[in-house]
Design goal:
Blueprint (H helix, E strand, L loop, with lengths): L1 H13 L6 H17 L1 H12 L3 H27 L2 E3 L8 E9 L2 E5 L7 H12 L3 E5 L5 H14 L5 E3 L4 H9 L4 E5 L2 H13 L4 E4 L5 E4 L5 H13 L11 E5 L3 H16 L15 H11 L3 E4 L3 E2 L4 E2 L2 E4 L16 E7 L2 H8 L7 E5 L3 H10 L4 E4 L20 E2 L5 H6 L1 E9 L16 H4 L7
Parallel strand pairs: 3-4, 3-6, 4-5, 6-7, 8-9, 8-15, 9-14, 13-14, 15-16
Antiparallel strand pairs: 1-2, 2-18, 7-17, 10-13, 11-12
Bound molecules: nicotinamide-adenine-dinucleotide.
The site of nicotinamide-adenine-dinucleotide (NAD) has 28 residues, from α7 and α8.
Keywords: NAD, Oxidoreductase
Protein name: Aldehyde dehydrogenase
GO cellular component, one term: cytoplasm
Length: 456
């Protein structure tokens, strides 16, 4: 069945229909309408999957992709147009161009944590760039996978875009096929499997992976505001956000003040009985819940740690000074647990950060510009924010992606269009002039050849 889908999409791509910009716009507009029409049903699906608050589904899933669609529809003519560039003197007389060409048939594999946004946002870029697409949503959020399928069925013909639902095995079957581009969002572990499969066919990839994101709070930071913004970004989606702060590195002189402010901020956000709050999600399934429970064993809990095994509920939890070799600090936490680690010197920060691969995000809370810039310029990470968390994802003009361990490539806005397009370089040469200088036998004196760098 998968082979058949790929074959049909390849054949449709060959008809050249997706190269027509008005065809792309027409389908993207239909996608826009269908998502707007079903916004409430999407909220219901995400609530059924892991009690995701309506506000968070609207802000971070549906409105997010609708904003992306609006922007793409406004800009697509310009992005898709052939760009003329200056010619080299050495080719004179010629005119030189960059053509944007779709790759062909694209595979998008999505995770469960923002299950709607992370399936649809790359799809928008892939369709805008003129590709045919197979989307594989996460099996861990089945209600969202079902609505993604419904929407795509309503908007696209299956030879243009289709959904293949299923778990790891289906994903593996999909990866056996030859794709023209693979866009994967998920863990670094599976990212490596995807990269290996892609390498067999030299298929280009974007890998949007995870990491252990530090959040640094120095002694000049506005502590109460920092706490509010850290708590918001960390406990949004119950900590299941790839760019959430994974752990806090705080200057020892402001540690106690920060802990008090974080506690106050959590209570102000979710109330005394967090389990009853409509604004706090659940851990997505039992497997992840048990993983988090295991991480907390033997740790000093400063706040929270409340659980309900029946509902995969773990409350926002602050942990004091976990050891570097603890389970909590071994890898990405991806849940509502926030370790707080104090530092004395910048060297301590350095030693801590260097224990991990390059993270997807880094945050700095400080009123010291020199310190802010030092962190930005010293460490490699996907992206981040100064005096806030998570918000870098909301600017469609900023590329979103990781580096090293946290991924390959980036997307959103124009970057999405660019990654799903091959940039074809064309020189159109005039025929009325053809000096013999470049052709053998070479007669141009070497002293002139040594100067031709000025003509490139
Ligand atoms: P995952 O890697 O377990 O799964 C992602 C997708 O891969 C799913 O569709 C799944 O079915 C498929 N898959 C799982 N195992 C596979 C295998 N062995 N072979 C082939 N396919 C397989 O990730 P997840 O648990 O769904 O998502 C959480 C991870 O994703 C976290 O690490 C998080 O940081 C990361 N993430 C990154 C971003 C980003 O934009 N960089 C966004 C969200 C999540």
């Amino acid at each position: 069945m998968i082979k058949e889908i790929v074959e049909k999409q390849n054949n449709f791509f060959k008809t050249q229909q997706t190269k027509d910009i008005s065809f792309r716009k027409e389908t993207l507009k239909r996608l826009q309408q269908e998502i707007s029409k079903r916004e409430e049903a999407i909220c219901d699906a995400l609530f059924a999957d892991f009690k995701k608050p309506r506000f968070e589904t609207l802000a971070a899933e549906t409105q997010f992709v609708l904003a992306e669609l609006k922007y793409v529809l406004k800009k697509i003519d310009n992005w898709a147009s052939t760009k003329k560039v200056s010619s080299s003197w050495i080719n004179w007389p010629s005119s030189d161009y960059i053509y944007k060409e779709p790759y062909g048939t694209v595979l998008i594999i999505a995770p469960w944590n923002y299950p709607f946004q992370l399936a649809i946002a790359p799809l928008i870029g892939a369709v805008a760039a003129g590709n045919t697409v197979v989307v594989k949503p996460s099996e861990i959020t089945p209600n969202t996978a079902a609505i993604v399928t419904e929407i795509i069925k309503a908007v696209f013909k299956p030879h243009h875009v289709t959904v293949v639902e299923g778990g790891v095995e289906v994903s593996q079957q999909l990866l056996e096929e030859k794709w023209d581009y693979i866009f994967f969002t998920g863990s670094s572990h599976v990212g490596k499997i995807v990269y290996e499969s892609a390498a067999k066919h030299l298929t280009p990839v974007t890998l949007e992976l995870g990491g252990k994101n530090p959040c640094i709070v120095d002694d000049t930071a506005s502590i109460n505001l920092a706490a509010k913004r850290i708590v918001w970004g960390k406990f949004l989606n119950a900590g299941q956000t790839c760019i959430a702060s994974d752990y806090i590195l705080v200057h020892h002189t402001v540690k106690n003040k920060l802990i008090v402010a974080l506690q106050e901020s959590i209570t102000k956000s979710y109330g005394e009985n967090i389990e009853a709050s409509h604004d706090f999600s659940r851990t997505v399934n039992q497997k992840h819940y048990l993983r988090l429970k295991e991480m907390l064993k033997g740790e000093e809990i400063l706040f929270g740690g409340h659980r309900n095994d029946e509902d995969n509920y773990l409350s926002p939890t602050l942990v004091n000074e976990p050891k570097l070799d603890s389970k909590l600090m071994a890898g990405e936490i991806f849940g509502p647990i926030l370790p707080i680690i104090s530092y004395n010197t910048e060297e301590d920060i350095h030693n801590y950060i260097m224990n991990y691969g390059k993270p997807l995000a880094t945050y700095v809370f400080s009123n010291n510009k020199k310190f802010q810039n030092k962190i930005i310029n010293t460490y490699s990470f996907g992206g981040g924010a100064i005096n806030d968390t998570v918000i870098q994802i909301t600017n469609k003009r900023l590329p979103f992606g990781g580096v090293g361990q946290s991924g390959i490539g980036a997307y959103h806005g124009k970057t999405s269009f660019e990654i799903f397009s091959h940039h074809k370089a064309i020189v159109k040469k005039a025929n009325w002039f053809d000096p013999s200088l470049r052709y053998p036998p070479y007669t141009l004196p070497m002293k002139f050849v040594k100067k031709i760098k000025h003509l490139f």
